[in-house]
Design a protein that fits this description.
11 helices; five-stranded mixed sheet; 9 strands
Length: 302
């Protein structure tokens, strides 16, 4: 019986699937809908199976084929909710092996080819994660507005705050403030009504304005990007402190990250390395370790 390894990376909007053979050859890939188990375990499973069906078709495989043993590694958003994890693992399936972790963990494993390392995801929110020996460390990721400092939602909210301060004279009016207000037809009332109901992703839509006007030298925009970089420095330092100051390689992810990289402290910048593999490959590394133990790298060139 030959082993087939399945990796799934499930987030709030989509789920990515990859299938590999024992030698690490990619046999098929697929995509499904949202994979966040906190939102819906059933929908997460439906998304996984939709993507897996696509990948199996590409590979010319079937889960019913007795010549293969299927081993699945899942990294899914919502893993921090114990009841959701319990319900997901109790869902009926036909995999010989199944391992579930957070989407951050598999991103970290993929980035560092299954070895010890750290990542910081700087997208709409901010989440730091490190794998070190037998320990897994998380920093941030608490959600917005009570956390996620330095991310896109935070940048958008801070831009709104500066705009409102400029309206009543507590801050200088700059082109960034004017651009934010123009998004709402120049109406402070429209802006305030929108902000009361806005979700993290809504505030995140204003982050590109901050980045754009920083490129024009806008003082408020430059200050916000510097402040965001300082928040990411704090996440990096907290990860390092949690692992007895071991200087792990660090990879940045997310749409905001490239705009902060050069603003990070020299100590953090010198640790930065490029990602080696994506999160779906990290999920496969996870389940290979479960099935093959210390020999999990054998035959895949790592």
């Amino acid at each position: 019986m030959k082993n087939i390894f399945i990796g799934a990376d499930g987030g709030g909007t989509k789920t990515k699937i990859q299938i590999e053979d024992e030698n690490g050859n990619i046999l098929g890939v697929g995509k499904g809908g949202p994979g966040n188990i906190r939102t819906s375990v059933k929908n997460s499973w439906n998304s996984i199976m939709a993507g897996l069906s696509e990948a199996l078709t590409q590979a010319g495989l079937s889960l019913d084929d007795p010549h293969y043993a299927y081993h699945a590694g899942f990294g899914l958003a919502g893993y921090e909710v114990p009841e959701a994890v319990k319900d997901f693992l109790a869902y009926p399936h036909t995999f010989k092996t199944m391992v579930l972790e957070s989407d951050a963990i598999i991103a970290c494993l993929g980035a560092h080819a299954g070895e010890d390392g750290a990542i910081i995801i700087v997208g709409t929110g901010v989440h730091g994660c490190a794998v070190y020996q037998d320990d897994i460390i998380h920093v941030g990721g608490w959600g917005f507005p009570h956390g996620d400092e330095g991310g896109g939602a935070w940048l958008g909210m801070e831009a709104v705050r500066l705009t409102l301060r400029s309206v009543d004279g507590r801050a200088h009016v700059t082109p960034l403030c004017e651009a934010v207000l123009n998004k709402f037809n120049g109406s402070v009332t429209e802006l305030v009504i929108w902000a009361v109901e806005a979700k993290p992703g809504d505030f995140g839509t204003l982050a590109p304005l901050v980045i754009e006007y920083a490129g024009f030298g806008d003082p408020h925009a430059l200050m916000l990007l510097d402040s965001a970089a300082a928040e990411i420095d704090l996440v990096a330092q907290a990860l390092e402190d949690a692992i007895d100051h071991a200087c792990l390689d660090l990879t940045l992810f997310g749409g905001i990250a490239p705009h902060l990289k050069e603003r990070l402290s020299p100590a953090v910048r010198k640790r930065l390395v490029d990602r080696q593999f994506d999160a779906t490959r990290g999920a496969i590394f996870l389940v290979r370790q479960k099935v093959l133990g210390d020999d999990w790298k054998k035959g895949i060139g790592l």
